[in-house]
Amino acid sequence: MSKPSVAELRPVVHPAGVKDRRSGEHWAGRLYMREISLRWTRHLVNTRVTPNQLTYLMVLAGVAAGAALLIPGLIGAVLAALLIQLYLLLDCVDGEVARWRGQTSITGVYLDRIGHYLSEAALLVGFGLRAADVFGQHEASANWLWAFLGALAALGAILIKAETDLVDVARARSGLAAVKDEAATPRSSGLAVARKAAAALKFHRLVGGVEASLLILAVAVLDVIGGELFFTRLGVALLAGIAVLQTLLHLVSILASSRLR
Fold it and tell me: Can you say whether the dihedral through the CA atoms of 59, 78, 96, 50 is positive or negative?
């Protein structure tokens, strides 16, 4: 069976709204990864590889990115950033293969969500262990405070996603349809303005996999220049603070909006 062309694939695997989803599509997907993924997808749609197998590979790449951060120096940070790009690519490809074959499923959606939880948490935990200097590259013994802060950032990243996902759970158990994007606007005008300001600054994105990996790479470069782990530890503290703050703000935003009504 001949491989479909990119032109044949595009209208099927990128139907209207996929790239424009307000809360579903990552900026990197819209900017470049969806175009790269199409080139991969065309080689996979006629193989025996299933969408769920691709999702498992996505999770493996994400978790491996966190493990890569245990490699000291710039090498570990570069490897982690590359693995996160592979994670993002596979995250695009699994859905595209499923749409082309008509194999979209509840199981696939569930595995995809679990994959995001595990991968992004693993990256932040790995960042904390890197800052803790568990192998004693810079200090005589590990400083577990930084590992704790990395775990705190990971917990915050998970809770932020859970807060969003649990809206649909709560609505489904109440017999309501899935929430629409318009319902995310807070009923209070003051909170609406605050939400727009936070969305414009996009500081909350730093605890996401792609953004966190780029931050980790940047601080690793700075540490090479400046020596020791000062910037890595500063980055861990920053992400932990953002994760805790965003967890609280996101919860308030949901409760103040029409998403639960």
Answer: negative
Give the contacts of 32 (CB within 8 A, at least 6 positions apart): none
| Distance in angstroms (rounded) separating the CA atoms of residues 161 and 243 | 11
Q: At CB < 8 A and 24+ separation, what contacts does 101-107 make? A: 101/45, 101/51, 103/50, 103/51, 104/51, 107/52
d(CA 90, CA 61): 9
Which residue in the block uniquely carries the two structure tokens 């969806």?
A: 34
The per-residue pLDDT for range 178-194, each reduced to its tens digit, is: 777 655 555 555 555 54
Burial 98-107 (b: 16+ CB within 10 A, else e): bbbeeeeeee
Please state the pTM of the whole predicted model. 0.88
DSSP class of 50:
-
Phi, psi of 221 (to 5 degrees): -65, -45
Q: Is residue 87 within 8 Å of 27, Cβ to Cβ?
A: no
Q: What is the pLDDT of residues 191-246, one digit of tens each?
A: 555 455 455 446 667 888 899 999 999 999 999 998 789 999 999 999 999 999 99
